[in-house]
């Protein structure tokens, strides 16, 4: 598989079995080799619509075999998120 597919598989390993990635966006990084993603994640179970979260995931470099969770932000019904400039 390509790099993006490998990254998605590694990111899925960070999640609970009932969670699903709704959206994954690769971000620009201030460090040249570091690879960063912003994920929108929520449980697939019925009635879990209000349990959405933003996750920040980091890879040390493009071919890294593991990733780390750098940010967790729960989204509530009145949450507004603005991404501006370098994040």
UniProtKB/TrEMBL annotation:
GO BP annotations listed: negative regulation of actin filament polymerization
Source organism, top-level taxon: Eukaryota
Gene Ontology molecular-function annotations: actin binding; phosphatase activity
Pfam family, one: PH_SSH1-like_1st
InterPro entries (UniProt xref): Phosphatase_SSH-like, SSH-N
Chain ranges of the Slingshot N-terminal domain: 7-87
Record's protein name: SSH3 phosphatase
Organism: Fregata magnificens (Magnificent frigatebird)
Gene: Ssh3
């Amino acid at each position: 598989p390509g790099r993006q597919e490998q990254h998605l598989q590694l990111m899925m390993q960070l999640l609970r079995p009932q969670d699903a990635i709704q959206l994954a966006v690769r971000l620009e990084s201030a460090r040249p080799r570091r690879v960063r993603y912003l994920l929108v994640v929520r449980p697939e179970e019925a009635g879990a619509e209000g349990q959405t979260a933003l996750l920040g995931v980091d890879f040390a470099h493009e071919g890294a075999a593991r990733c780390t969770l750098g940010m967790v932000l729960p989204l509530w019904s009145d949450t507004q998120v603005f991404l501006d400039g370098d994040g």
